[in-house]
């Protein structure tokens, strides 16, 4: 068989920039049925909203793990903090994932850290 690339650390998970643009467009499209009252498309809008929020929440958790990794070396401690944060503020993680996707904050932090 062929060689399989190793799985990167969770803190390195990210959506490629070109696909992130499409996810943001899908997120905007998911809002259209409820904004315009298109009753027959509400389920589709809810499903798209769920998909995009899940993707951006995972990216937000990955970004949070990246930031926590700078100070907290214990992976169980980081995981517990991320889990509690997800339970208390999932939309904040989703927003952080979307912002990180648009601004590529990890790349800038890596440049600053050297």
Return the string of H and E elements: HHHHH
The structural class is: mainly alpha
General form: globular
Q: Compute the average pLDDT.
A: 91
User: What fraction, in percent, of the residue positions are helical?
Assistant: over 70%
* N-C termini distance: 38 Å
Query: Using only CA atoms, what is the Rg?
Result: 16 Å
Largest sheet: none
Number of strands: 0
Count of individual helical segments: 5
| Residue fraction in strands | under 5%
Quick summary of this structure?
With 114 residues, the protein is mainly α.
Keyphrases for this structure?
mainly alpha, 114 residues, single chain
What is the fold's blueprint, element by element?
Layout lengths: L16 H20 L5 H28 L5 H14 L1 H14 L1 H9 L1
Helix pairs in contact: 1-2, 2-3, 2-4, 3-4
Describe this structure in words.
Helix 2 (42-69) packs antiparallel against helix 3 (75-88) and helix 2 (42-69) packs across helix 4 (90-103). By secondary structure, the protein is an all-alpha fold. The longest helix has 28 residues, at 42-69. The protein has one domain. The termini are far apart. It has helices spanning 17-36, 42-69, 75-88, 90-103, 105-113. The model has no long low-confidence stretch (mean pLDDT 91).
């Amino acid at each position: 068989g062929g060689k399989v690339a190793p799985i990167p650390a969770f803190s390195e998970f990210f959506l490629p920039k070109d696909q992130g643009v499409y996810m943001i467009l899908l997120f905007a499209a998911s809002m259209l049925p409820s904004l315009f009252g298109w009753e027959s498309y509400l389920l589709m809008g809810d499903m798209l909203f769920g998909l995009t929020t899940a993707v951006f929440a995972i990216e937000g958790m990955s970004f949070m793990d990246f930031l926590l990794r700078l100070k907290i070396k214990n992976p169980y401690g980081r995981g517990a903090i991320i889990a509690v944060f997800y339970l208390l503020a999932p939309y904040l993680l989703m927003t952080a994932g979307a912002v990180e996707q648009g601004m590529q904050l990890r790349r800038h932090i890596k440049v600053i850290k050297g």
